């Protein structure tokens, strides 16, 4: 997710979590359990869509 998108959510008091990996059920459980952490990854170019952490 790009910086502008992350800032838009933050400005509207919406927590952004980027960089989550794994099956969605596992990610949701991690969030419910308070264990899901954002990597803070910010995409700079659309050319790397889906591969910002590579």
| Bulk shape | flat
Biggest sheet details:
none
Low-confidence stretches: none
Alpha-beta classification: mainly alpha
Radius of gyration: 12 Å
Which percent range describes the beta-strand content?
A: under 5%
Give me the strand/helix succession: HH
Average pLDDT score: 86
Task: Report the span from N to C terminus.
Answer: 14 Å
Helix content range: 25-40%
Per-chain topology:
Layout: H1 3-11, H2 24-32
Structure description:
There is one protein chain. By secondary structure, this protein is mainly α. It is flat and about 30 Å long. The model has no long low-confidence stretch (mean pLDDT 86). It starts with a helix and ends in a 22-residue tail after the last helix. It has helices at 3-11, 24-32. The chain has 2 helices and no strands.
In short:
With 54 residues, the protein is an all-alpha fold. The protein has helices spanning 3-11, 24-32.
Features:
54 residues, mainly alpha
């Amino acid at each position: 997710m790009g910086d502008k998108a992350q800032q838009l959510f933050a400005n509207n008091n919406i927590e952004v979590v980027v960089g989550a990996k794994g099956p969605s059920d596992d990610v949701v459980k991690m969030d419910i359990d308070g264990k899901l952490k954002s990597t803070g990854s910010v995409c700079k170019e659309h050319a790397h869509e889906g591969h910002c952490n590579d």
